[in-house]
Design brief:
45% strand, 9% helix, five-stranded antiparallel β-sheet
Length: 235
């Protein structure tokens, strides 16, 4: 009897330690996010206005899509076809504010001593986010830059006069890195899932995302989003 109780306690303990997943739905597709849900908003970083939209999945549209802990920034450089999509009229960009996700940021450092070189995790931050779904409905390859986030995209908000204004700058505008970074390539009929990080804000204007590709521009649907007036006033 005691052995059975010990076994039962061990099973319960394992179940309680099991990693919690965040399950969301996009039309007929189920998103399973490995980053568990946290809704604690943090202040927008005032020292930077560079757009950051981390990519978590690129591939076919399936019944179930599992989102890992981001795509790798470096490593194998995925090749793409000679014919690259330049016209974005068959690309749709959707921000779904009903899909609650989290962006995972891991801060690491390296320590040496006694002839050893070791990596150490200093802190892990989870930032609430919405889902960004980019769909390539064409038969061509869509090339969106390098690293693991959408570097050619920026958020816009609508001011009181109805004009659309950029919030910050796209990442590629100040990019001078020459490291061997992976290509962000969305194949024919594939989708890309990224995350729109949410912050604290003192007003909630109508917003949209603007994706730039060669000489083409694609806009997302409009949505209400919290912004910090101090950031907006710097533009």
């Amino acid at each position: 009897m005691n052995r059975f109780l010990i076994f039962l306690a061990a099973v319960v303990g394992c179940l309680s330690c099991r990693k919690q997943f965040n399950v969301q739905h996009f039309h007929e597709t189920v998103f399973i996010d490995s980053v568990s849900l946290d809704t604690t908003l943090k202040p927008m970083k005032k020292h930077t206005q560079i757009g950051y939209f981390p990519v978590y999945y690129i591939g076919p549209l399936q019944d179930t899509i599992r989102l890992g802990e981001k795509l790798s920034s470096h490593g194998e450089n995925k090749k793409f076809k000679d014919f690259v999509l330049r016209n974005l009229n068959q690309v749709t960009l959707t921000v779904d504010t009903s899909i609650k996700l989290n962006n995972l940021t891991i801060f690491e450092s390296y320590r040496t001593g006694d002839d050893t070189f070791a990596k150490r995790v200093d802190s892990i931050i989870k930032e609430p986010a919405y889902a960004i779904i980019l769909q390539n409905r064409s038969d061509s390859t869509l090339f969106l830059g390098r690293f693991n986030y959408l570097r050619s995209m920026v958020m816009q908000y609508q001011d009181q006069s109805g004009k659309w204004k950029d919030v910050g700058k796209a990442a590629f505008s100040s990019d001078a890195c020459l490291t061997f970074a992976k290509n962000i390539v969305v194949g024919p009929k594939q989708i890309l899932i990224a995350k729109l990080i949410r912050y604290e804000g003192d007003f909630t204007p109508l917003c949209r995302l603007k994706l730039m590709n060669f000489d083409q521009t694609c806009y997302s649907n409009t949505f209400h989003f919290k912004l910090d007036k101090s950031i907006i006033n710097q533009n």
